[in-house]
Specification:
Number of domains: 2
Order of helices and strands: HHHEEHHHEEEHEHEHHHHHHEHHH
Region (Disordered): 70-94
Structural class: alpha/beta
Distance between the termini: 47 Å
Number of helices: 17
Biased composition (Basic and acidic residues): 70-80
Organism: Saccharothrix yanglingensis
Shape: elongated
Strand content: 15-25%
Number of strands: 8
Function: Required for the transposition of the insertion element.
Largest sheet: 6 strands, mixed
Family: Belongs to the transposase mutator family.
């Protein structure tokens, strides 16, 4: 019964929302009687021709009858309708796809053809609950073929791949609006990272999609936007991205944490002159391992730990000199890597442990990327850039449906935000006004 109602309550924005509390008045004995009769007659509760489908049919037809009564101004067979100039004109059959499968309904008509149903609009073949189901499955990485097979197997509904693609294409408009929405004036931290997707553009190739995730002044997570790249992004590209964020209202960012993206520090300085750029320590370590033999990874990690846990920049330099003496001859590329990244590596050493803990890596955004990668991996590769962006956007929109993650974020960031308030001399106060 709940599934049946869910398809109705979302069918149109103008339809009153049916909440669980509204069902409390239903006679439990009547429900038991219906179920008992269905079982006695060998009628299935679910599936094709089942009780839920028949109840859905009657509920929809009753709602449609109520709508045409409101439209004409008189009840069926009411003498008051004589001479009004318009009247009922029979019904037409129509099959709609609902949460409980395909349901054939009789839609009433009027002689003037002026009746416009709302619960099941003209030419509407699916209740919006089905659209939401398709979008949810797509957000989890299922292909159009897999969604079609799922609907056929579970609901006995034949939905073509093209129809599924049309449903998911509806999110593109919402994605464009989301990508251009106004943002906060100040963000304590913005994490920028990339996930790689396979795009079939002539030939299948890896393409990065850059994700900018901020932490608000209240300690909440905010995905600022998505930008597709070609792998050769430089200062000009990042200047365009950051200028877009500024034009959407971001006047100040205290720190930007990233993975040594070429040209990004210069672009940050141009757009937000007071912003500190911090290299992700985790990525710096991972990149170091690329130049070392696997048998030495543990030893190198142990030797580098005193560098990034040093209490001051001066102490970090001493520890790094010791690392270079021990490993520089065998792995000079690792020493060069850290030398080149040093300016963006050391900023977090100047802050309290509360700030260090949350900004020394992009772990915060990595948890988001893990969800995105699951959806991307399930799809394999995409026909074009727009399809890839749509998949990533859907995955982001499906994050934290219960809201429990938001509470954990706020608790985790509360000490850090207090430290930011002190360390950055009240710049966060502008964002709280």
């Amino acid at each position: 019964m709940t599934e049946m109602m869910s398809g109705v309550e979302h069918a149109d924005d103008t339809t009153p929302e049916i909440r669980p509390a509204a069902l409390e008045g239903l006679d439990e004995r009547l429900i038991d009687q219906l179920v008992g009769q269905a079982r006695a007659g060998g009628l299935k509760l679910t599936g094709e021709g089942g009780m839920l489908q028949q109840l859905t049919k009657r509920l929809l037809e009753s709602a449609l009858e109520g709508e045409i009564t409101d439209h004409l101004g008189y009840d069926k067979h009411d003498p008051a309708g004589r001479g009004t100039g318009n009247s009922r004109n029979g019904t037409r059959s129509k099959t709609v796809l609902t949460d409980v499968g395909p349901v054939e309904i009789d839609v009433p008509r009027d002689r003037e053809s002026s009746f416009e149903p709302r619960i099941v609009a003209k030419r509407q073949k699916r209740l919006t609950g089905v659209d939401e189901m398709v979008i949810s499955l797509s957000a989890k990485g299922l292909t159009t073929g897999e969604i079609s097979a799922h609907l056929a197997e579970v609901y006995g509904a034949e939905v073509s791949r093209q129809t599924i693609s049309t449903i998911t294409d509806k999110v593109v408009e919402g994605m464009t609006e989301w990508q251009n929405r106004p943002l906060d004036v100040v963000y304590p931290v913005v994490f920028i990272d990339a996930i790689h997707v396979k795009v079939r553009d002539g030939q299948v190739a890896n393409r990065p999609i850059h994700v900018a995730m901020a932490v608000t002044c209240e300690g909440q997570r905010d995905i600022l936007g998505l930008w597709a790249g070609d792998g050769g992004e430089g200062a000009k590209y990042w200047l365009h991205v950051l200028t877009e964020l500024r034009n959407r209202g971001v006047a100040d960012v205290l720190m930007v944490v990233c993975d040594g993206l070429t040209g990004l520090p210069d672009a940050v300085t141009t757009v937000w002159p007071r912003t500190i750029v911090q290299t992700c320590i985790v990525h710096l370590l991972r990149n170091s391992f690329r130049y070392a033999g696997r048998q030495h990874w543990d030893a190198i990690a142990k030797a580098l730990k005193p560098v990034y846990t040093a209490p001051t920049e001066a102490a970090a330099k001493e520890r790094f000199a010791e690392f270079a003496d021990a490993w520089g001859a065998r792995y000079p590329a690792i020493v060069r890597l850290w030398d080149n990244a040093w300016a963006e590596f050391v900023p977090f050493l100047a802050f309290d442990v509360e700030i260090r803990r949350v900004i020394c890596s992009t772990n915060a955004i990595e948890s988001v990327n893990a969800r995105i990668r699951r959806a991307v991996k399930a799809r394999g590769h995409f026909p074009n850039e727009q399809a890839a962006l749509k998949c990533v956007y859907l995955a982001i929109m499906s994050l934290d449906p219960t809201g429990t993650g938001r509470k954990r974020w706020m608790m985790r960031w509360k000490p850090a935000l207090n430290a930011f308030e002190i360390a950055f001399d009240g710049r966060l106060a502008v964002g709280r006004k």
